């Protein structure tokens, strides 16, 4: 499975008998997978379906599945509310008896609110099961659309992340060249400082010994080696399958740890500048990784 993002949208529509519906699935970034469902009354069983299907397709992100379903007008049975009709007749009877109103006509009574209402009958079990199965199929289609949208985002992210990893590798190479100049620079600085403090009384051997000790503390070869290894690991993850967002996030922390150490050990302005550029690119990389599943 190619690299996938965590933002996207999918939609599906369907109809069966008197029913029609629309399903929308959308997602945003999240550290873990969180599935939310919104559906019409009487279709609570679809929540389990939506959760199971989302869990089978995604590893991270906040996924919301919404179902809107309606039954066509006139498709359901109607009934006469006799109690409401009797209340209307009882309320009007004194006025009719007093000659203040004409006896009500049936067509007028039937037009009064609440006299005719939709029956509360439910779908028979087989019809209800078929309806839920059809809506479940639409949920799958909407989630497939969401997955496709997330893969499109992942393709764009892969290009951006790959370019940032290339830039990190380039800066590591620059730092390697600059680091080779550190021992001579440290020796020169130490020698100049000792001459300022003790004049010609300091021997060359002593200067070499102290400068070597300082150069050893400023040696960044291990940091550069680890950064090179991290670059290879990042490229492997970007080219691999499955959700790699968490591993890339962890790798970013390791990148930044080595870049910080490089800057703290730097004895050259140019090397420090390279280290700061490296940290800036790693931070940009970290921000983009937050969008990866």
Task: Explain what this protein looks like in three dimensions.
By secondary structure, the protein is an alpha+beta fold. It is 62% helix and 14% strand. The chain has nine helices and six strands; from the N terminus they run βββαββααβαααααα. The protein has helices spanning 45-57, 82-97, 106-111, 125-179, 182-198, 204-217, 221-239, 245-265, 269-289; strands spanning 8-16, 19-28, 33-38, 61-71, 78-80, 116-118. The strands form two sheets. A four-stranded mixed sheet has the order 1-2-4-3. Strands 5-6 form a two-stranded antiparallel ribbon. The longest helix is centred in the middle third of the chain and has 55 residues, at 125-179. The model has no long low-confidence stretch (mean pLDDT 86).
Which features does this protein show?
293 residues; rod-shaped; alpha+beta
Query: Which range best describes the helical content: under 10%, 10-25%, 25-40%, 40-55%, 55-70% or over 70%?
Result: 55-70%
**N-to-C SSE string, H for helix and E for strand:** EEEHEEHHEHHHHHH
Classification by helices and strands = alpha+beta
Instruction: Point out poorly predicted stretches.
Output: none
Assembly category: single chain
Radius of gyration: 37 Å
Strand fraction band? 5-15%
Any idea what the shape is? rod-shaped
Question: Within the largest sheet, what's the order of strands?
Answer: 1-2-4-3
Biggest sheet character:
4 strands, mixed
The total beta strand count reads 6
Helix tally equals 9
Overall mean pLDDT: 86
Q: How many angstroms separate the termini?
A: 11 Å
